[in-house]
Write a structure and sequence with these properties.
Order of helices and strands: HHEHEHEHEEHEHEHEHHEHEHEEHE
Strand order of the largest sheet: 2-1-3-4-5-11
Number of strands: 13
Oligomer: single chain
CATH architecture of the largest domain: 3-Layer(aba) Sandwich
Distance between the termini: 43 Å
CATH class of the largest domain: Alpha Beta
Number of domains: 2
CATH superfamily of the largest domain: Response regulator
Number of helices: 13
Helix content: 25-40%
Shape: elongated
């Protein structure tokens, strides 16, 4: 297996030789999503370029073989899929064709044992880097202390998760993007759209550190702003409907952190909340697509694309330790029109608000 320091030195040498001739990046993109079933065939692909750059300007491996990039997800859901697609599309748009860079995508299907097996396989495999979508896969890779660099996508609390000590100074062979949830802004949105909501239900999974941290921020906000809150926690998706039901009769609204377990059961939460005439404020646009009432969202594809740019920086010769992790800010208000009408709430159309309807 090519070790991380060898990859970096090779990439840096290529960059130095080609500095005067690098072409601009192409603007087109490929929306094709690679999957685990086609990985074996894709892995046989080899670059026809013997070092240097591709026609579009991307730095290609000196040995003529394609870069191999692993991508790990804990579960399949709309948000994570969009992040992965944004990551891959950005690589393709910047000139890394399928013959120059092979994607090996694997999903743990929500199983922690599967996740550990996948991470161990990628840590011990011939990968130039591994992209991890959200917190659990990132922790799984970083905890192995592998020489394979990790680019994480949308880890809400990287320091609390133990995958980096300082955002500006990556120290665990991992860097990437954080989608820190704007808790205060989301609660301010609830005050604007549903001002009578004074008691909030907090619904989250205790095994996801990102969810726990966001829930703690929500509690703090409520305490500082005279709001009441009640918690309903779960350990797996089979408990979500009952937990949501336990809140329905005693709260005015529900807040859900960025939680993959809850997200996987959002249609059930939507059913309970609409029946009880309770608005749900989510932490992603995908939750709103799945029936939550509203949120202030980060573009999932954009955060994937920004993570890909960091991967490109590494492949071009920059050490992981010299690529600071970044927080991608929330950029738009999203309201589910179907839920709005079901709850009898009126939201005026104005700049900065995007209306969606149920996708699930």
């Amino acid at each position: 297996m090519r070790k991380a320091f060898m990859k970096r030195s090779l990439a840096m040498a290529v960059t130095a030789m080609m500095m005067g001739t690098l072409a601009g990046c192409a603007s087109g993109s490929s929306s094709q999503t690679e999957n685990a079933q086609t990985t074996a065939q894709a892995s046989e692909a080899e670059s026809k370029v013997d070092g240097g750059t591709t026609a579009e300007g991307a730095v290609s491996p000196k040995d003529g073989k394609a870069y191999k990039v692993g991508v790990i997800q804990m579960v399949e859901n709309g948000a994570f899929n969009d992040m992965r697609e944004g990551f891959i599309e950005e690589l393709r748009a910047k000139g890394y064709s399928e013959s120059d860079l092979v994607i090996d995508y694997k999903c743990a299907q929500g199983d922690a044992t599967n996740l550990q097996t996948i991470a161990q396989g990628m840590a011990g495999g011939d990968y130039d880097l591994v992209a991890t979508v959200a917190t659990p896969p990132t922790q799984a890779m970083v905890n192995l202390k592998t020489e394979t660099p990790v680019i994480f996508v949308a880890v809400s609390a990287p320091q609390a998760a133990g995958v980096i000590t300082e955002m500006e100074k990556p120290d665990k062979n991992a860097t990437g993007t954080s989608n820190a949830i704007p808790v205060g802004d989301i609660f301010a949105l609830s005050e604007k759209l549903t001002p009578d909501a004074k008691t909030f239900g907090l619904l989250y999974c205790t095994s996801e550190v990102n969810s726990v941290n966001t829930a703690e921020s929500a509690k703090k906000y409520c305490e500082e702003n005279g709001l009441e809150y009640k918690e309903a926690v779960v350990t797996n998706s089979s408990e979500v409907q009952q937990a949501a039901q336990s809140l329905a009769d005693s709260v005015d609204a529900i807040f859900i952190p960025n939680d993959s377990v809850i997200q996987s059961a959002m249609p059930l939460v939507t059913e309970v909340a609409r029946s009880a005439k309770i608005p749900v404020y989510g932490s992603s646009a995908t939750m709103v697509d799945s029936g939550a009432f509203a949120t202030i969202a980060i573009s999932d594809k954009e955060i994937g694309a920004q993570s890909a740019d960091m991967a490109i920086e590494y492949l071009s010769g920059t050490a992981i330790a010299d690529i600071p992790a970044i927080v991608v800010p929330a950029s738009e208000t999203v309201v589910n029109k179907t839920t709005m009408e079901a709850l009898g709430i009126e939201v005026a159309e104005e700049d900065g608000i995007r209306f969606v309807e149920d996708k699930n």
